[in-house]
Amino acid sequence: MAKQNIFILGIESSCDDTSAAVIHNGKVLSNVVASQKIHEAYGGVVPELASRAHQQNIVPVVHQALKKANITKAQLSAIAFTRGPGLMGSLLVGTSFAKSLAYGLNIPLIDVNHMQAHILAHFIEETNFKKPPFPFLAMTISGGHTQIVNVEDYFSMMVIGETIDDAVGEAYDKSGKILGLGYPAGPEIDKRAQLGNPKAFTFTKPKVDGLNFSFSGLKTAILYFIQKETKANPNFINENINDICASIQYTIIGILIDKLKKATKATGIKHIAIGGGVSANSGIRKALQDGEQKFGWTTYIPKFEYTTDNAAMIAIVGYLKFLEANFAEQDIMASARLKI
């Protein structure tokens, strides 16, 4: 069969980043992301402000993605968009735009599960990046999600562990807020952790059955610890900030690695792929790479720009679905709580 000439436009609008990307036969031609700085002042994403910003950003972002890819709308084979999960108002902007554009161009519309996209980002054609073989375990860690997924094929996945409360990204952000750091706090805690002693302070790991996670108890333990120490010494945070960050990060990484060890033992699968914004964390990446020596894992870490929310991961799922002629109808609706 002759190789098809497939151009997919991907649109991602699940939270506070408006993104558009063009993929040609699995290779990224453009991946444009407009971030919303407005939420920093509030210490978290404000849904109403996010959806308004998406409305302002989506046309220029799509225009830029097509321009960077050096193609016209007429060359597009299909439009892929994030159906969910995410913030409903944000999802509606991307969904409505994608449906209208696909209808206007008379080309297929492809709905994408945001969580599947984080996992399938590993299959974007990139030089020097190896793709995980099936079956593999995917750990998706971000501001809104913490999951371990058993991946048997592109569209055959089962969640075998997930958070029962806060996501790992929330644990970072809430810890950062307690310490007076900016939002998002994850990169700042990671940076400071590299300068501190990870065993300076001990935080108890939550006891959760099976492969599920819990981070709310850790956040509360950190809050009480800081309150107690600053009562005795008002300068405690300033004097110990690097050690506190290192100890928090050490605990969080310990929780993630413990569950992965359990998951590999339970499934017998030793190929581990990570994704999601928190997978950019240097401590988590190092712990996973150390696991190759310690536990015989093979780890797969995507290119940095495909870890956070982006449209290239939506477009690659669109490409894989296009090959199967797996298209959506025009009456499809966004779904804030869409499951894998």
TrEMBL record:
Q: Where in the cell is it found?
A: Cytoplasm
Q: What is this protein called?
A: tRNA N6-adenosine threonylcarbamoyltransferase
Q: Show the Pfam families listed in the entry.
A: TsaD (PF00814)
| Keyword Transferase included in the entry's annotation | yes
Q: Which organism is it from?
A: Jejuia pallidilutea
| Residue runs in coiled coils | none
GO biological process terms, alphabetically, are:
tRNA threonylcarbamoyladenosine modification
What is the primary gene name for this protein? tsaD
Q: How is the cofactor bound?
A: Binds 1 Fe(2+) ion per subunit.
Q: Which InterPro entries match?
A: ATPase_NBD, Gcp-like_dom, KAE1/TsaD, Peptidase_M22_CS, TsaD
